[in-house]
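Sample A.
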Amino acid sequence: MIQIDVTIMGQPYKLACKEGEEAALREAVAYLDGKMCAIRDAGKIKGNDRIAVMAALGIAAEFLSSKLPDGPLADMSLSEVRQKISSMHAVLDAALAPQENLF
């Protein structure tokens, strides 16, 4: 295992990965950083935890939409998957709203 230093939304992280997987991890970090920065810069969502959750949901939606024909959601249309994700956003917003006062 090797350790690499990366930055996500301006925060430094030290991550471990197997030798030969460094480039893939750096690519994943760059992709996540781009998604999180775009959400932050849109200004609608505050708090790094909320931004991370929204980015994760967006990435999951991208992944699932590319896997629909073979995946567990094969019987659902893309619009149904998007509706489910929108519902998850609403649930997360409601669950995380009380925590906004803590920051």
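Sample B.
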Amino acid sequence: MLLPSIEVAVRHAPAADRAELHSLRARTYQVAAASFTRQDQADAAWVASDRALQAAEMAGKPLEVVAGLFRMAHAFMRQQQMDQAEQAAKSAVEVLDPRAEDPACPPEELSLLGAMNLVLAVINAREGNRPQTHAHLTRAEEIAERLGEDRNDFDTEFGPTNVQLHAVSTAVELGDAGLALEVAAEVDAGGLSTERQARFLLDVARAHAQRRHVGEATAALLEAETVAPEQVHDHHLAREIVRDLVQLSNRRVPDALRELAERCAVI
């Protein structure tokens, strides 16, 4: 009910109040886009991120425009439209990079720049481009060190810990399971959202699955389920991992894995 109320308010508010309402509208659509992305509703996420961009432009809020591009890049990635995702992320980096050269650059801008570099790292990892993956991870790490803490500007959860999580994720994408597990062993994701914690555990499970470690992968999935059960049951990635583990087990599927597969509607 919030979004329809904001839309009505924008249409009927005095001109002097509209910029503030458009800013609220932009932030609300950003939240909706993030939620749709987590629920694997890529088309709805794209629509929400597009409206967030439009509202941010009407509000005259450049950083909220960039935050909208961040959500749009994620929506494009979920749609497997990597070229469009990369274009959205790069356009934001081109705006933010020169501003980051200022030692007094606000942390909110640094968070967005770091988060966009993580998006580009994931895109390049999925395309098998190791040099660019590592270049964007390195850039994100530099920005995280400059911030010196985990933040959550514009719901990006950017900071040193999230850079580590993306180091794990991109290593898995590149097939470097050993490196992924080595980095994961040093990660404490307890301060991040349950969604990020669960996604990290899914990447750990993927790494173990790549090494055919059925028991370890199952344990990571069960831990992720404890943290965020709906996310694990509904996420396409979790289902793929469970399906792969069942196949690896042949006819000797462990009870815990079989029960998890049933909860995820895999078997």
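B remarks: The longest helix spans residues 15-38. Residues 110-189 form one domain.
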